[in-house]
Amino acid sequence: MGGQPEGGPAAAGGQPCHHAACVGLGSNLGPSLEILRSVGERLQAHPALESLRLSSPYRSAPVGMDSGHWFVNAVALVRTTLTGPVLLRLLQALEADHGRVRLRPGTGYQDRTLDLDLLLFDDLIIDSEQLTLPHPRLHQRRFVLEPLAEITPDWVHPLLGRTMADLRDDLVDVKCNQQVERLSWPR
Ligand code: ADP
Ligand code: MG
Question: pTM value?
Fold first, then answer.
């Protein structure tokens, strides 16, 4: 499948609605690779989620924050019966389970054991205080677009009308200062 939802949101015959979503995983504190792999397994095990693909991990220098800790990022493609806001709450609970401490809003980016962002949810466009979809910075971040383009290159950004592969290529052409290194999951 190309990443966009199949068959539209209105399932027939009283079946639960299935949505396709991309979740961004990031960590720059602690054993980042192990943390992300464990989160991938938690997503896989959740009864309301079906984990379809997990990208390779990618290592990158911090962007937009004053920190010496490098990041590891990955993206998971899931199918779910949850709504977008409920999925975001589940992701925030997983962050808390992994020791993520949120400082006051507006204090800027902080080092984090785990950051889970909802990147894409079907073709949904929302801009509320709790949830903005598509994630507002996904098209500017190579550490998000590389794993997205790896697992779902043909998913079309609902606002920009461009595929994840095209957005990744644009960024590589324009901002080659955002270096990312593709890693492998440890055995
Ligand atoms: P960041 O990921 O930008 O470093 P946080 O993880 O601390 O920031 O999230 C800050 C807030 O962003 C959260 O309270 C959450 O409600 C909000 N938010 C809005 N849209 C999204 C989204 N698509 N994915 C994740 N969080 C989001
Ligand atoms: Mg976040």
Answer: 0.89
